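User: Thioesterase, Paenibacillus glycanilyticus:
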Amino acid sequence: MAAVSGMDTSTKREQILQYIETLDIGEKISVRAIAKALGVSEGTAYKAIKEAEASGLVSTKERIGTVRIDRKRREALDQLTFGEVAEIVEGHIFGGTSGLDKSLHKFVIGAMELDAMLRYIDEGSLLIVGNRIGAHRCALEQGAGVLITGGFAPSEEVRALADENGLPIISSRHDTFTVASMINRAMYDRLIKRKIMLIEDLMTFNRPADVLRSGNNMLDFHKLSRETGNYRFPVIDDRGRVIGLITSKDAAGSPDDSPVDKYMTRHPITAAPNIAVTSAAHTMAAEGIDLLPIVDRHRKLLGVVTRQQLLDALRFAGKQQESGETFDDLIWAGFDAEEMDGTPLYKGAITPQMSGSLGMVSEGILVTLMTRAGRQMIRDAGKRDFLIDGMTAFFVKPVQIDSQIRIIPRALEMSRKTTKLEIELLDQAGLAAKAMMTAQMIDSY
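Assistant: Predicted structure for Thioesterase:
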């Protein structure tokens, strides 16, 4: 490719990104090599590589370097890659770097005879084993990666086979039990993270949003409104960056030949694609907006989401089964719901795992328990989703381990828009903690 030194910096970066897209998956990339190949400064090459990383074109890992990868899809979030495994176990890569972006679907602990081991190894798996050269070779031949425990290095023959097959061979100083625990914990965390719905889950990035451009006039706005049935549009510049937002309210009474730049709201609120839907919904409610442009870190438009899309997504997410227990779930698991004179009551025991540094229950645990009780009451009473606006807690006295406690939330106000609760936490001796909670109902958005 010819040098691009005669162009401005932003155009150079776009050329570099196009060049990176032509590279083979698994190919290593360096700032110096990119700068030399395209005739640009190392500073420009560095910025372009960082932009490529944000876009999912490359991945940079410690002790591995920067490697060209496939764009990761959200649907595969629960699957670790071999490169991520290497980072988790603090491993050293001895070969097969072109396969670091391949997904791991299971791991096999090689604590058995070789013939028995081979029955469990297949393509996409990872063999965790000590310094057994025969097992290393057989795993690679079966299409599996290899993780060597105890800090041992593979033989030259095995390294060459790993490079030939594009399957990583990793060495970690930790023992088999430790690395298996590390990987298992990471895989479990992915299950929980997949439950969290992100903005990018709602968007179709390859379908451009309906937009107006700087220089369009109000006649263009009315024409686009008629064609799409929409009344709110982002306004972008010639580089695709969001510079404004215009609505039918802004356009009311304006001459057809007036530029949209004159009437649009400048510097509108935007969001990144990797933020949680709940966070975006809260932003839209707090700011009173119905259309949220989604942008990359350079404010280039990726798409838009509406308030209704977020509401539908939150309702859908609330109906899904849990993918894994969080710490909050584990804390609340031992509590049962009862009713006292028409008021909900939650009873349970304080376990040793809930203790703080002084041998009493942690104040953070008490807040978590009162929050969960408040959440449960609102859901049971209104069958509606909500976001907590505020929580103020007061601690009357310490609560001892093994205490039986009761949590009683009472509604001070429950309307279509907001809910206010008073929550009491009592042990055998009486009131131990109290909280005031306010919540914004999602349906009021």
